[in-house]
Amino acid sequence: MLAPMSGVTDLPFREISWRWGAGLVVTEMIASRELVLSRGESWARLKRAGLGPHMVQLAGREPHWMAEAARIAADNGADIIDINMGCPAKKVTGGYSGSALMRDPELALSLIEATVKAVEVPVTLKMRLGWDETSINAPEIACRAEAAGIQLITIHGRTRMQFYEGRADWDAIRRVRDVISIPLIANGDVQSAEDAAEILLRSGADAVMLGRGAQGRPWHVGALAGYRPPSRGEQAEIVAGHYDAMLRFYGRKAGLRHARKHLGWYLDRLAPAVAGDEKAAIFRSTDPQDVMRRMMQALAASTPPISREAA
């Protein structure tokens, strides 16, 4: 499964991952209140464009807005609603959403209950192990969430205070497996097929979710599931197609801005030896044709890195 990553797993990225074999892809986090009030990029994040099943992730801290947003999502094609209780970003937790909900299990359960009651489609939950090392409460919340009607749970094997530092604790995820009977998805630090096998073994989970390991290689989720990865030439075609899709999806000005981080990840993965000044020229250019010409030259001149992730 491809993890929901705000600012990363937009529709163009999800389309590539799905096309190359990802078992399930999830939208970027959508703020429930903003969706109901039609603010910001909420409706753009909701778009499906033929991908299925369409799994929509919602975030919020008030049961009313979560329920209303879930209804809107379901009415607009969502097959699954996922509740975000894992985002560690300060702008999210500062509003008592995301992983901050794990500090208040009663509020978290009220959101879960309201969302489940609002829609007929399955509702799932993504969270961390807890807020910090002194409050590892994922097993407790997971057990109560299942009783409230949640049909699948994803656990990122870190606390909120760890953000993305250190190593994810795959063994700790098993404590959730031990108290629920619904499907469990394990997430955190999965880069290779060996990692995927190990996290499944140690966590007892039913499936694996890949996040940062897919940056710069959106086909990698499917590759870990056993599908054929793209050849070097196909990778270049994916990069060019992804860039064009982002410009069409966001418009030229915004698309250029959104695309830069993806181009950087592609260069890091596929052309790590490219000179710094050439990277800078790619990022500075506002001419899409010039950007792609430079990217294709960089990819053509680079030998693919050999690593266990690529094996």
UniProtKB/TrEMBL annotation:
Q: What is its EC number?
A: 1.3.1.-
The record places domain DUS-like FMN-binding at 1-285
By its UniProt entry, which SUPFAM superfamilies does this protein fall under? FMN-linked oxidoreductases
EC class: oxidoreductase
Cofactor(s) this protein cannot do without: FMN
UniProt keyword list: Flavoprotein, FMN, NADP, Oxidoreductase, RNA-binding, tRNA processing, tRNA-binding
Which InterPro entries does the annotation name?
Aldolase_TIM, DUS-like_FMN-bd, DUS_fam, DusB-like, tRNA-dHydroUridine_Synthase_C, tRNA_hU_synthase_CS
What reactions does this protein catalyze? Answer: a 5,6-dihydrouridine in tRNA + NAD(+) = a uridine in tRNA + NADH + H(+); a 5,6-dihydrouridine in tRNA + NADP(+) = a uridine in tRNA + NADPH + H(+)
Identify the PROSITE patterns for this entry: UPF0034 (PS01136)
User: Where does the secretion signal sit in this chain?
Assistant: none
NCBIfam families (alphabetical): nifR3_yhdG
- What role is this protein assigned? Catalyzes the synthesis of 5,6-dihydrouridine (D), a modified base found in the D-loop of most tRNAs, via the reduction of the C5-C6 double bond in target uridines.
The record's similarity note reads: Belongs to the dus family.
This one is known as: tRNA-dihydrouridine synthase
State the species of origin: Pseudorhizobium endolithicum
